[in-house]
Design brief:
The protein is an alpha/beta fold. It has 7 helices and 13 strands. The strands form 5 sheets. A 3-stranded mixed β-sheet has the order 1-4-13, with no helix packed on it.
């Protein structure tokens, strides 16, 4: 009996330490790419931004999106270090986020809004107040005066949501970040835990339902999923990149391979009043669509070869799932790149000259 009590005591003592480390579950398929979204306006002084992330629900074997939100810091001087997914021992595991006096390692993941992969540029504590960097935060400067403006270099638009593994972010903690991990920490506060549970019980937040395009991407306060109160959906550009250009965001199957994507939609004809310019633009659209279609076919062919190799090798389920996860990531990256190419071309769409526009009668 004494031995059992001793072991139980050790287990209880180990729980707080584990709360800042890795969650025990390992997932064979990595999380989807990060959605792009607008940050809701800061609700008030003392609130710090905690970026959104993909969590995993083992009961349904599915990822779900926990929206980014503003949270009151548990102590003066404390900052939030986001959690992140990392690869190890044949699967992806989640490293939990925490509050601490400095921001530690979060996998090199570019969560945005000051969390660009290393450190934090969204604000700092000074004389008991948190000062917000306006260049990366959505702040109401009429009511919030503890602000400053400091440009932060963000040279990457990488939306990969995990560290290590195939196509993962290749970042490692610095000695300073390792020291930060040994500082006094506070786990996610009750509001954050309840926020995560609210996301977990919302089917529209699940990756299998939204295909990496969650219904609510960010909220003004934890648990406030009401769009009328400022909850944000993903940017339209991101919706296109998740489903293929012109695709529907309500399809019910996961788009793992290029063949799962809807056909590339042709934009509506332009009429700027200059037939020559319009024709040249439409030819550019035709060339882009043809090239993107060819890239889809080439990727599908490579993936088909890998499927054939799995069959010949009689690969087990774990290996098959790993390859499927790689295929899904490749397809997501391809669709995102194609959406960005379409946006770039459409930004140069011919516009009607002022003299060609009909004049309104006074």
């Amino acid at each position: 009996m004494r031995t059992i009590r001793f072991l139980l005591a050790l287990l209880i003592m180990a729980i707080p330490a584990a709360s800042f480390g890795q969650i025990g579950i390992r997932v064979a398929i990595g999380p989807p790419m990060l959605p792009s979204y607008e940050q809701p306006i800061c609700p008030g002084d003392g609130y710090l931004w905690t970026p959104g992330y993909w969590a995993y629900d083992e009961s349904v074997s599915d990822y779900y999106w926990v929206p980014g939100t503003w949270v009151e810091a548990p102590e003066e001087g404390y900052l939030w270090t986001p959690g992140y997914w990392g690869w190890g021992e044949g699967g992806y595991f989640f490293n939990e986020g925490y509050w601490g006096p400095t921001v530690g390692f979060y996998g090199g993941v570019n969560y945005g809004f000051g969390y660009f992969g290393e450190g934090y540029g969204g604000g700092r504590w000074n004389n008991g107040h948190f000062f917000y960097n306006r260049s990366v935060n959505n702040i109401d400067v009429v009511n919030t005066h503890n602000v400053y403006n400091e440009r932060i270099e963000n040279n990457t638009q990488n939306r990969v949501s995990y560290n290590g593994g195939r196509d993962g972010i290749e970042a490692r903690p610095s000695s300073q970040q390792e020291a930060s991990a040994r500082e006094r920490h506070i786990p996610a506060v009750a509001a954050q835990t309840e926020h995560m549970q609210a996301a977990r019980t919302n089917p529209n937040q699940r990756a299998s339902m939204n295909h990496g395009n969650p219904a609510i991407a960010a909220t003004p306060r934890p648990g406030d999923f009401n769009e009328a109160h400022g909850a944000a959906r993903p940017n339209e550009a991101t919706e296109a990149s998740r489903t293929g250009t012109g695709g529907s965001a309500t399809e019910t199957h996961v788009m793992v391979h290029p063949n799962d994507l809807p056909p590339i939609a042709r934009p509506a004809p332009v009429n700027s009043g200059n037939a020559k310019t319009d024709r040249k633009y439409e030819q550019q659209q035709d060339k882009l669509i043809a090239r993107q279609t060819q890239e889809r076919q080439s990727l599908q062919q490579r993936q088909d070869v890998e499927h054939q190799q799995l069959t010949q090798q009689k690969a087990n389920e774990a290996r098959t799932q790993q390859v499927e996860q790689q295929h899904q990531q490749q397809t997501q990256q391809l669709t995102q790149r194609h959406a960005e190419q379409q946006q770039t071309l459409q930004s140069h769409q011919p516009q009607a000259r002022q003299q060609d526009r009909p004049h309104e009668k006074p």
